[in-house]
Write a structure and sequence with these properties.
The protein has 252 residues and is an alpha/beta fold. The strands form two sheets. A five-stranded parallel sheet has the order 2-1-3-4-5, sandwiched between helices. A two-stranded antiparallel sheet has the order 6-7.
Length: 252
Amino acid sequence: MNRSTFVRSCGLVLVALLTLGCNLGSTGPELVDADLRILFIGNSLTYVNDLPGLVETIAEAAGQSVETAMVARPNYSLEDHWNAGVAREIRRLRPDVVVMQQGPSSLPENQEYLKVWTEIVSEVITEEGARPALMMVWPELARVHAYDAVRDSYLNAAIAVDGDFIPSGEAFRAILAVPGMAPYSPDRFHPSHLGSVVAAAMVVRAYFPNALEGLGATITPSDSENPQVNLTASEASVIWSIVERVATEWGY
């Protein structure tokens, strides 16, 4: 499978991504053998800047092979994906891990909504021998007070299905607190390139100990269709250090 060919077919221009999203069809790409095969299910917080592709790029630099596929459409919740037939894609692709996300889901009713639909989708995931994972996202910049609620929402959903909690949002919050670092894009909700690198690095670190050791500021993947990591030296030093610290705090 060539995940990046699939993403290119959906459009790599940010405007097109925000408008159209990306989705797999019944004849979509395959997941080939790798150290880890991940299916991402989510929305624009995943497909903007091609977060799955960044996971592949960072993992490759760490000496690990990761293959990814993505089912992501704008403003989609897990219920929307379920109704659109995501169960078929899980069964067809048979990934090792399925990483799920929807919106921040910080309000009490939205926390319950995320938990219920995580449980429903995870039934298929576990039937296929895969592991469910929840990638914590982040609130809008105007609602930074909601970070704890977003964390609790995703953590409780992961606990409910005995799945993995990936604290990308906690690393995002820690980066935001560093002067001069800008994980948000100008719309104050979607991630910048730097923000997507932070989220992707946390996914890699959650599954591969010591993966961030020795990484530089610019990472060029062997597959030219996968995104590069382009940071300044100071940004890279801060990001790899913070992601490592957050991962350690969460037991990775």
